[in-house]
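Quick one, probably user error.
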């Protein structure tokens, strides 16, 4: 009976974690460039139950009763880097990154492209959120004030919002002078990127991600005045949230049933003698 408590509690914890993940996805359904998280549930290893203090079987061992499951857990959360839909805004500071042909990878999963961002500590981070702005010194930044970098990982000073960006990422200012080229980098294994918040991703591999500029096996297109929308499917997320809630409730009822049985075993059966 005590094992049943643990199994039901494990199921409740797993569904609670899944519900938290889905809630975060839904909350970011309108965040530009946001990539929805996906989760996988796994079961703990089964236990083999044998009868104790009984006569040995034909092979000299205790009789086997059977297998006992020991609950489930949320194994991992993985972002889905599928391309989001494009939305026209008309703002010069909004730039969308549209992926084209991507080379095959060893894992079989498609690679992904990202902007290069410098955070407040000067470290390189990556993002798909092209909702940029101009700071007081005329530098191109994210809405949180992180610098957007060019091909040499230098900050890009555009001066004002009257700059232009072509499909290859070359930037010219309001006077028509060349300023820089946006650095677009490529990851053949996006699962090595970890979300840090504010649309930033940290690379967990060695070194930094390589640039996609000049790579003939990769094609992409930058579009000024457009934003990549979140790839969260709101209706599907709501359905999954209801499923997680019902699974949580089912485990809760099982836990209550075990609790009532334990109450009878302790307070009623114990009084019979």
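Nope, works fine. Designed sequence:
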């Amino acid at each position: 009976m005590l094992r049943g408590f643990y199994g039901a509690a494990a199921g409740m914890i797993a569904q609670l974690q899944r519900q938290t993940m889905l809630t975060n996805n839904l909350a970011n359904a309108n965040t530009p460039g946001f990539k929805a998280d996906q989760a996988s549930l796994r079961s703990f290893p089964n236990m083999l139950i044998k009868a104790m203090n009984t006569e040995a079987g034909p092979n000299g061992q205790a009789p086997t009763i059977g297998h006992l499951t020991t609950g489930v857990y949320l194994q991992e959360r993985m972002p889905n880097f599928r391309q989001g839909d494009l939305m026209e805004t008309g703002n010069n500071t909004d730039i969308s990154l549209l992926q084209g042909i991507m080379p095959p990878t060893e894992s079989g999963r498609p690679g992904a492209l990202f902007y290069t961002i410098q955070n407040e500590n000067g470290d390189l981070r990556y993002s798909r959120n092209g909702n940029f702005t101009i700071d007081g010194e005329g530098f191109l930044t994210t809405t949180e004030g992180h610098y957007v970098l060019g091909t040499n990982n230098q900050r890009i000073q555009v001066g004002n919002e009257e700059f232009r960006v072509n499909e290859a990422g070359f930037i010219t200012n309001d006077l028509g002078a060349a300023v820089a080229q946006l650095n677009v980098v490529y990851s053949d294994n996006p699962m090595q990127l970890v979300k840090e918040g504010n649309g930033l991703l940290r690379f967990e591999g060695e070194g930094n991600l390589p640039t996609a500029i000049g790579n003939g096996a990769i094609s992409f297109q930058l579009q000024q005045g457009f934003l990549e929308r979140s790839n969260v499917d709101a209706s599907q997320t709501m359905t999954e949230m209801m499923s997680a809630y019902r699974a949580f409730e089912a485990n809760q009822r099982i836990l209550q049933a075990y609790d009532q049985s334990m109450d009878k075993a302790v307070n009623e059966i114990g009084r019979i003698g």
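The two ends are 22 Å apart (CA to CA).
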